[in-house]
Design a protein that fits this description.
With 146 residues, the protein is an alpha/beta fold. It has one domain: 3-Layer(aba) Sandwich (Rossmann fold), CATH 3.40.50. Helix content is 27%, strand content 27%. A hairpin with a 2-residue loop joins strand 2 and strand 3.
Length: 146
């Protein structure tokens, strides 16, 4: 790990936005990754939250910028600026709310449209959250794997 206060001017920087409807678990996933903690309480993201994870791989300083985007439609105007310069992205849906799976089409549409204008090829990861709530699941495994 990098020591606090160490000069990171030579760090490789990567931008990773996370998209999905409100309440699918974007912030929870981010906090779990950064701090190893599961937060029981929920408070919606307003606009976008920005997190930074620093680490070393093969002797190289890495700076991972995680952009946790709010899922509400009123913040969608921010999407092109958030997508611009992304090195990868995560699209999330809630396995217990089928509509969040259906809405991935909208998220992917905006993402692809923005990438076309910027001539970017960005790897994407699809994440289904709340796997611990198996009894409430509404997105079948087969459908999620398509």
């Amino acid at each position: 790990m990098i020591e606090m206060g160490k000069n990171l001017t030579s760090a490789l920087q990567f931008k990773l936005p996370i998209f999905g409807d409100a309440g699918v678990g974007k912030t929870t996933l981010t906090h779990r990754y950064l701090h190893g903690l599961f937060k029981q309480s929920y408070h919606g993201t307003i606009g976008v939250d920005f997190f930074l994870k620093r680490f070393v791989i093969d002797g190289k300083n890495i700076s991972l910028q995680i952009w946790d985007f709010a899922g509400e439609a009123k913040f969608r105007f921010l999407l092109p600026g958030i997508i611009k310069g992304a090195h990868g992205t995560i699209f999330m849906f809630d396995l217990t709310r089928y509509v969040t799976f259906e809405n991935l089409t909208n998220w992917l549409g905006v993402f692809n449209k923005t990438n076309e204008t910027q001539d970017q090829k960005v790897p994407a990861l699809l994440v289904g959250s709340k796997t611990d709530l198996e009894g409430l699941r509404t997105v079948p495994s087969k459908e999620g794997k398509k």
